[in-house]
Amino acid sequence: MSSAKSAAAKAKTKRILNIVITYCILLIVAFIFFFPCLWLILASFSKSGSIYTFDGFFPTEYSVASFNQLFTDTVMYNYPKWFLNTLFIAVMSCILGTLLTILTAYVMSRFRFKSRKAMIKTTLVLGMFPSFMGTIAVYLLMTQFNLINQQWGLILIYSGTAPMGYLTQKGFFDTIPYSIDEAARIDGASNFTIFIKFILPLSKPILVFTALTSFAWPWSDFILPKMLLIDQDLYTVAVGLMSLDETQFSRFAAGSIIIAIPIIVLYFCLVKYMINGMSAGAVKE
Amino acid sequence: MADLSLKHIYKVYPNGTKAVNDFNMRISDKEFIVFVGPSGCGKSTVLRMIAGLEPITAGELKIGDVVVNDMEPKDRDIAMVFQNYALYPHMTIYENIAFGLRMKRVPKDEIDRRVKEAAEILGITDYLKRKPKEMSGGQRQRVALGRAIVREPKVMLLDEPLSNLDAKLRTQMRSEIVKLHKKLNTTFIYVTHDQVEAMTMGTRIVVMKSGFIQQIDTPKNLYKYPSNKFVAGFIGTPQMNFFEGTLKKVGDEVVIDFAGSDAKITVPYSMMMKTTPSYLNGDKPVIIGLRAEDISLDEEKVQKSAAKIKVKISHTEELGTETLVYGDIDMNGDGFAETNTRVIIKSGGFKDYTPDEVLEAALDISAVHLFDKDTEESILPRIPEYNYVDCVSRGGKLSFSGVNIAIPPAICLDEGACELLIPPTAITFGGDIPAEVEGCEDISGKVLISLEIGERRMFALSDRKLPEGKTAISIDLKQVAVNMGGEQVISPMPTVNTLNGTFSMVKSKVQRSDGKKQKVRTYYANIAGKQLVMPEEVYLKMFSALSGRKVYNTTFDYEFTPYDFTLAQDGLEGEVQAMLDYGSELFAKVKVGGSILYIKAENEVAGKVFLLPEMAKVSVIEKERGIRIV
Amino acid sequence: MEKAKQILRSFFSGLCNKIASFFKGIPQKLRSKLAAAKEIITQGNGNVGASMCIMGLGQLLYRQWAKGTLYVLLQAAFIIYFVMRGGADFFGLFTLGQVKGDAWYGIKGDNSIIMMLMGILSVIMIIFYIAVYITNIKDVYRTQCAEDTLKRPPSFTSELKDLLDKKFYKTALVLPIIGVCVFSILPIVFMILIAFTNYGGDIVPPELVDWVGFENFGSILSLGQFASTFFRILGWNLLWAVLSTAINYFAGLALALLLNKKCVKGKAFWRAFPILAYAIPGFITLLGFKFMFSYGGPINFYIQEGGGKAIGFLAVNSKWAARFIGLGVNAWISIPSTMLLATGILSNINTDLYEAARVDGASAWKQFIKITLPYVVFATTPVLITQFINNFNNFGVFYFLRDSVRSEGYFLANNTDLLINWLYRMSIDNNYYSIGAAISLIIFIITSIISLVVYVLSPAYRQEETFR
Description:
The structure holds 3 protein chains of 3 kinds.
Chain A (H helix, E strand, L loop, with lengths): L1 H43 L20 H8 L6 H32 L5 H13 L6 H10 L6 H11 L5 H8 L3 H9 L4 H12 L1 H17 L2 H6 L8 H6 L6 H21 L1 H14 L1
Helix pairs in contact in A: 1-13, 2-13, 3-6, 3-7, 3-10, 7-14, 10-14
Chain B lengths: L3 E9 L5 E10 L4 E5 L6 H9 L6 E6 L2 E2 L10 E4 L11 H11 L4 H15 L14 H13 L5 E5 L7 H18 L2 E6 L2 H7 L2 E6 L2 E6 L1 H6 L4 H6 L6 E10 L2 E6 L5 E5 L17 E5 L4 E2 L2 H6 L3 E11 L3 E7 L13 E7 L9 E6 L5 E4 L14 E8 L2 E4 L2 E4 L9 E7 L4 E17 L2 E8 L2 E7 L6 E7 L5 E4 L2 E4 L6 E15 L5 E11 L2 E4 L2 H10 L10 E5 L4 E4 L3 E10 L4 E7 L2 E6 L7 E6 L5 E4 L4 E2 L2
Helix pairs in contact in B: 2-3, 2-4, 3-4
Chain C lengths: L1 H42 L2 H8 L3 H5 L3 H31 L16 H37 L7 H7 L5 H27 L20 H8 L1 H37 L6 H13 L2 H11 L5 H8 L14 H27 L4 H9 L4 H29 L3 H7 L16 H11 L3 H25 L1 H9 L1
């Protein structure tokens, strides 16, 4: 009797200990991930711009001057303009890139044509090359097409290379039963109608996922804009913020927070789609 | 409203697998046809070919009078219900049912009327505004049915529609589908792997296995007259008992010897008349099939019965109305493993059997099924392959049971005792041999007549029933084989003449009556160096069976019967090798190119002849894929 | 040991079989193509011949006006392109220019690099043209087949309609293929070619560039300044890829499992922190961390407060400190995505398995080892490969943290640089184009070999084998 009781008590303490340890780890993890963000937020409200005047992680004086400066002092660093540039490029590439990726994935999932296998293998091999191996060539190409120092050049590159990452989306489409296509065909729908009326509405999760990733990439990319954009007026936020140094730290922090907020909001709203999208691609790849 | 005809349908995948082989069937209007077979037997492929979801490799598919091989599914006037329902998840039930009509641009109020009507029939009116995922499996299946019937199709195709439902719902939906069939009055084609579904629903059932049709028949005939061991084992629960054994005819009796056991029973030969005699000499292993209800443990019956075997009881399954008794005719067997000595016996009511008890069981031999051990084909066919007749050849005459037939010159037979193998088709009515009609049996459109000739029982085929009583027959000796001393000395004359050949087209210009020149194309079969004009109905079929210009680059087998040739001044050049005189008919054996032909001749010919085949009657076979095109 | 041997053996035999069957397939494919060509040539009628001479002529003779005209126009367009510049571009690809520009004499010379680029473009155009030409012949032969077998050839409108139905894949793939060709394939081919030229250094236009064969690879692998740098960087790069992938993978997995625990309340809340880190654009994080570890940054502030001397974590003389910071920062950025992925996969595990395990009396730890881990590892192997390659080519971390630093003993690089950073600095910042291109080819070879091996050794692949 008593041994059973003590065993039960033991199990209980063990469980409580387990819970305590779990929460401790969670707290530490939360701190690790949150503290740098907090630091940036605090820094953005610092009155003096330079990092050298900080009291460790904490600014000595707080104000919203950096944010003000960001939007008013636009002679050297035209933040509002950069922001709009980034927004334009990201939105356009998101629309085009999503369209192309979804189309490619749909075709690869639903059609069996002669060169299909060869295409799949080619994309796999191409994916092995270092991502910006061809950057110089792209640069030269852009000069030839007169697209250097132009936002459309960037949009073309972002959306043109987007279809290479169609595998995740194909994995998702593969899970939509083929008999739905067949039922629709018997009902008299063409493949185009099937795509528009059935596949697209059924693939909302993966559409959101694709749109999100193809928006986030141009939004935070710095390599291509840095290379292709020359005029300060055309800079994206990433390139612009990179030109700020340690003495402009709070300005950098403020700019970062403003650029980060939209994407953070998007991710938090759509976290369900992210999880589903990532695992759909992973399992089926 | 629509008959369906499938002629020589094949499905060959690019990697060479043949999913469907020479599928031939006519489905009349309003039939409920069930395709049944184990998975991978090609039943779904046939259905999908009818639906137009799968291209047809070769053959001709007609719905009504229209060849629909190359037609889009939507234009075929069919509707299909899928195994996983395939409802459109993002649409309401109403939209699901209406979608097909919308695509057809049916007016809105008409759509509304028809959707509501279909919903009414299926009892889903209350759910029209719901989405599929808010419904149960049975309701979803109703929606799928609704989506199909709202199209008012000529043919309803159902691909294992009940296999995702639980047992109770399945039984319920089964009768609802049957009811629906009665109400709608359209042709239903239903695919299932469940033989119970097949037996309970179909007016006719097609049993398939690895791409081949095994048997097409009504449920009753399938159960009573399975044409091979596969069908016998597939249809009916519990499964038919199969024993291995041999048959030996001793006088007027047949001894059935069960392998793996001491059991041996003796039955009168009259009960096994249709058995192919070559199995009756006691050394060819056969499979003996008996259904559980045709074996009885009832003491009264056992006492009366002449065919008794000892069974060691193993265990029982009580099903309420009846008890299944498991046992073994091998006294060392355990009655559990599926061996060829295990036996399942249906016994009425509740009765206690002690395990390991040895009882006698009565076999109902009139219900026995016999199969060849290797080919598994029935050796007790409804239409026997041959009538076996012992006779004597003497003085140019064959005589048996008081009948004498003159031996025609085409048959060179030594004198002595011999055995005739007369196929039922070789017996024709009208002639000089007296006979008596004993009875008629309707077998899938043909009538099998049992005749008494002298004292012999023989079977003949006819198109219509004949009154019992006296009649006269004649025997077509060219179809008859003769055995003498255990060896076949005379074989029937081949009735299929195969010629190798190609196909070609020649363009020419012809003066029209108005003086203008017109381009004309003529199509030829090239056989043995000769061009023979092909009739339109033949080459059109060849065109539809072969893609591209393959038809011009392929070697075909052209097949003709002996009656399809005429002797002429021009045509295939051949050398007469022999004349075969069957008395009433005269045939010439002619060598044309590398092949030997048997052709009907009016009178004696010799030396070089020219043959003109009647091209309209040709059968065309593509050798590479082994496909019969015409 | 035995097991490892067996796996290796099956790996090599599998690989050999794959390669063998690939090459075995070629002659047969070729033969069937040749047979098809022979059939068209020997059996095609006059109209087919007409289309062979002038694209679209056969179609016009068959009275397929719209299609015929389209083909004729395409042919005309190609001829105009070829005469105007395509032909010259094509030959330029081989010569890479013969006239050297000289501003003094006012000679406008050849730009080798542009010529090469345009040359590749012209090759792509020629391939497209040949493809169109072949479809043209096939099309007219199809019409002949239809005519000869009394079938009606599809009308132009029905063929157009088919582009939205049966041939919808063609319509749908046009834009993606053009995009991938221009922005992925063309640049990659260009860089592969560059690796075999002497482009870079002093030899940039207007100087003429020339083909040099494998010289660049030779100098990377053996020439003093390049070779020593290359092997040092390669060693660190491999170590980096393995370490960072392992850290991110296992930490992400652990985090997901932690958040998946039954006793954790408010999962969404706890999950929010890693997602926050995931959502912040990478360059902000990296620049932020750079500031954090800089001389005047908060870390050094506290060190100085504590009486220490400011440490140049990312400065020239630090090596392992900078490397560890890099690993940590990369973990901070990458762990959340692994966590999200693992969360998705964990939610897909069949709970019956756990119930069965509990009935069998398996402890929580046993359940984890026997069910969770194999399942997750099985499901994520392909991701593991991608993550490994991404880490191998992780450009951002050290570009932001230490781009301006040059270490002693390294040529145009520092001791934390990965191959990809070196490649970038060599080609983009310092004009060593051909060497850079050769390095990228070497990176390609390394990554593809590694991912092939990992893939073959992965449970997903072996499972496939056992199920076959």
